[in-house]
Write a structure and sequence with these properties.
Layout: E1 5-9, H1 14-25, E2 29-34, E3 43-45, H2 51-65, E4 70-73, H3 88-116, E5 119-123, H4 136-156, E6 161-167, H5 193-204, E7 214-217
Parallel strand pairs: 1-2, 1-4, 2-3, 4-5, 5-6, 6-7
Helix pairs in contact: 1-5, 2-3, 3-4
Length: about 230
């Protein structure tokens, strides 16, 4: 199956960059939405915490590339700590990027996706299914992505393919800059983002009428699953 044009949020680094590479290797055309420019032919710098700006960016991309065939929402941030200790703006931003940014991008891409019978892959987390202390913002956002995606799949069934990716810990820069107590221990085995990206492409490459609704991918020693 030809992937066509795949819009990837957070595609400048981490899982998003791995998805961009995997899509390119599969013959697709990745387009990146990120706050950080990638230097590639087509990318758009946008802060996904601003939902209306994200929607405008998606519409500009669609006009520029002639339509979007798939969306993969890899952008995500965190704010670790006790609820009482996290500044309100930092807590809110996690929800704005992870949940509302995801919804805004998908919403804006829907006209293309409906016309082309395209696909959406959202990125939740094992912490969207299991709660953890000192992670109220992240858990709230990813629990929200789970609910959003399952409702979206019901709403768009037979029209747009919807897959929810539930990854465990990955070897990316996601953990950089955290206090030591919130970093994974040095001996913890984490997945390589390229391996998880291969699963995303697998979902995107399903034949018409066949969908991978949910994918849980974790290291074999994942501490937050099940």
């Amino acid at each position: 199956m030809t992937l066509g044009t795949v819009l990837v949020t957070g595609g400048a680094q981490g899982l998003g960059a791995a998805v961009v590479q995997a899509v390119r290797e599969q013959g697709g055309r990745p387009v990146v939405l990120d706050r950080v420019p990638t230097g590639k032919d087509v990318d758009v710098c946008v802060d996904l915490s601003d939902g209306r700006a994200a929607e405008d960016a998606v519409r500009r991309v669609s006009a520029q590339v002639g339509g979007i065939d798939a969306v993969v929402t890899c952008a995500g941030i965190d704010a670790c700590g006790r609820l009482v200790d996290i500044p309100g703006d930092d807590w809110d931003r996690v929800l704005l990027v992870n949940l509302l940014g995801t919804a805004a991008v998908v919403r804006a891409a829907l006209p293309d996706l409906l016309e082309r019978h395209g696909r959406v892959v959202t990125v939740a987390s094992t912490l969207g299914l299991r709660a953890l202390s000192d992670a109220t913002a992240y858990c709230a956002s990813k629990f929200g992505v789970v609910g959003f995606t399952r409702a979206l799949a019901a709403e768009l069934q037979g029209q747009v393919g919807v897959t929810m990716l539930v990854p465990g810990g990955m070897q990316t820069g996601f953990f950089y800059g955290r206090d030591e107590q919130y970093k994974p221990p040095p001996d913890l085995r984490l997945n390589q983002p390229a391996d998880v990206a291969a699963a995303v492409v697998f979902a995107l490459c399903q034949p018409p009428g066949c969908e991978v609704r949910e994918l849980v991918i974790t290291p074999s020693v994942e501490p937050s699953w099940p």
